[in-house]
Design a protein that fits this description.
- There is one protein chain.
- By secondary structure, the chain is of the alpha/beta class.
- The protein has seven helices and ten strands.
- The strands form two sheets. It has a seven-stranded mixed β-sheet, with helices on both faces. A three-stranded antiparallel β-sheet has the order 1-2-3.
- Helix 4 links the parallel strand 4 and strand 5.
- Helix 3 runs parallel beside helix 4.
- About 5% of the residues have low confidence.
C-alpha cells in the first residue's frame, strides 16, 4: 500500500507544468485527440443526447428522473482559467452516465440510492450530476481550483440535487477537510491522462474509500501508461471488473471506451 513517503511526485510542480502549456500546445493536443476519435464511429453523436436547451446550456435526459443541465468551456464567462480538454464532456463521460442510468433504471439496481458520491477530476461534472439524479444522497464534485467556477455554475443549474464542489489535488496533499472522509461511490471519467499522475489518483481513491466502496472508471486508453491504473488499483485492495458490452446501455457502447468497476475489499 502506498504511503505518503512513497509519493515522490511533486504535485504543485506538475500542475504548474500543465498551466505553462501555451494556447497553441493545448489546441494542438486537443486537435490530435479529436482526430484520433474521429476514426471511430460513435452512434450517440448523431442522437439528441445531450441537446441544447438555451444559449450555452446543455440538457442531459436521465429517463424517468428528468434531466440535468450543464455548461461547457467558458460559457457563461466566469473568470476561471480553463484548459479546453478539462471543460468539455467527452465520450467516456457519456458512456459512464448511460451505464449508471441503465444499471439503476433498467436493471432496477438500487446501489446509488442514499450513497455519498465523489467525482475526481470532474471538469464539467456530468457523471456526478447524473449520480445525483439517480438517487445519491450527496455528490461532491472535485477538480483543480481553476475548474471551480464552472462546476459551481453547473451546480446552480441543478438546485434540486444535493451537490457541492471543492478543489482537490490528488495524492498526499489532499484538502484537510477530506482527510478522514470516505465515500460510497467514486466516479472517474477520462482522468487517466498522465502516466505520472496515475499513482496519485490511485492514492486518493484508496484514501477516500472504505470497505465496500465502489469506484467507476470510464476512459479511452490514449496513453499506454493508462493500463498501470488497473494494476495499481488491484494492489491497493480493489477487485477489478471490466464492464462487458451486454451490461452497457445498448445505444451507448463503444469498444474504445473502457468502463471498469472497482470494489474495495
Amino acid at each position: 500500500m502506498m504511503e505518503e513517503d512513497d509519493m515522490l511526485f511533486d504535485v504543485d510542480a506538475f500542475l504548474c507544468e500543465q498551466n505553462d502549456d501555451s494556447d497553441d500546445d493545448v489546441a494542438e493536443r486537443l486537435a490530435k485527440i479529436k482526430e484520433n476519435e474521429a476514426l471511430h464511429i460513435r452512434p450517440w453523436r448523431t442522437s439528441s443526447t445531450p441537446q441544447a436547451v438555451s444559449t450555452g446550456i446543455q440538457a442531459y435526459q436521465v429517463n424517468e428522473f428528468g434531466c440535468v443541465r450543464y455548461c461547457e468551456n467558458n460559457w457563461p464567462p466566469h473568470g476561471g482559467e480553463i484548459v479546453a480538454t478539462g471543460a468539455m464532456v467527452w465520450d467516456a463521460a457519456i458512456v459512464l452516465c448511460k451505464y449508471l442510468e441503465f444499471t439503476v433504471i433498467t436493471k432496477k439496481n438500487t446501489f446509488m440510492k442514499g450513497c455519498h458520491v465523489i467525482e475526481l477530476g470532474a471538469g464539467v461534472g456530468l457523471p456526478g450530476l447524473v449520480a445525483g439524479a439517480c438517487g445519491a444522497s450527496s455528490v461532491l464534485l472535485t477538480d483543480v481550483p481553476d475548474r471551480m467556477p464552472l462546476l459551481e455554475h453547473n451546480i446552480e443549474l441543478n438546485e434540486e440535487l444535493k451537490l457541492s464542489a471543492k478543489p482537490l489535488s490528488w495524492g498526499p496533499v489532499q484538502s484537510d477537510e477530506l482527510k478522514d472522509t470516505t465515500f460510497d461511490v467514486i466516479l472517474c471519467s477520462d482522468v487517466l491522462f498522465n502516466d505520472t499522475a496515475i499513482p496519485l489518483l490511485v492514492y486518493s481513491i484508496q484514501k477516500l474509500s472504505k470497505s465496500g466502496s465502489i469506484c467507476f472508471s470510464s476512459c479511452e486508453h490514449r496513453w499506454d501508461g493508462a493500463l498501470q491504473f488497473y494494476t495499481l488499483m488491484e494492489a491497493e485492495g480493489f477487485s477489478v471488473e471490466h464492464i462487458q458490452k451486454e451490461d452497457h446501455h445498448p445505444g451507448y457502447y463503444h469498444e474504445s471506451v473502457h468502463v471498469c468497476k472497482f470494489t474495495k475489499k
